[in-house]
Structure prediction request, 251 residues.
Amino acid sequence: MTVSINLKDQVAVVTGGTRGIGKAIAIGLAEAGANIALLQRSENKEAKQEIEKLGVKCEIFNCDLNDIDRVRNVIPEVHEKMGSVDILVNNAGIQRRHPAVEFPESDWDEVLNINLKVVWILCQEAGKIMTSQKKGKIINIASLVSFQGGITVPAYTAAKGAVGQLTKALANEWSSQGVNVNAIVPGYIATEMNTALINDPVRSRQILERIPAGRWGSPEDFKGTAVYLASPLSDYVHGHLLAVDGGWLGR
Ligand code: NDP
Prediction:
């Protein structure tokens, strides 16, 4: 195989593309030629406008991920309107921090729904299309807490641990049908999700000192990995959790 990446005419569905890691991944896939379907709850058109400037198509599909009925029917709608579903990036996620003994049940349910159940339903709906067309790339966004326990984030850890295992479970079923299911494991990335950590000088310094690369990650660090996992270059990569963490897990 000649090494080149061109995702022209592929349709990539991305959740949480309004900002942070999801926005960078959507732009990266568009730079590689893919048309982008952004599943988002807000009217924010920033990502869409940036993507369209790259000369590819981009459509926003209104989808609050708390609305499970909408989550179930949005993938068939993308397929109908954009003609195909070739790539799915399950990026959207939320974080809730409380000591375990005080952790509210409502926060547990919300984190497990958005970070796990929604990922499962979107994988299932995309999987129906991808296994029938014998082609597809699913990229779930896991976390360091898919491997480690974290602290004061029990729901997030439970959900992201399960996302890692779900990635392997689906890869086992679908890899023989031309569908790759893999996950990216971000390290500590400077996004809105980490505002509290970044603004805490002690935690921020402790984290930085433990990152072998000597810096927090940026959303742009995910473009290359996402494009690779969406491309034929990764056709024999299945059920893998690929860390983009500045070396954190290896320490
Ligand atoms: P951000 O908080 O910056 O962005 C989260 C995205 O998810 C936003 O686009 C947000 O949309 C969307 N979203 C959240 N809830 C909903 C909802 N109910 N309906 C629709 N969209 C929703 O997160 P990051 O970019 O930091 O994180 C992206 C992914 O990476 C997440 O899965 C996160 O868990 C994971 N990750 C991040 C790490 C980090 O250090 N940042 C580390 C490890 C994993 P809206 O604009 O509408 O709020």
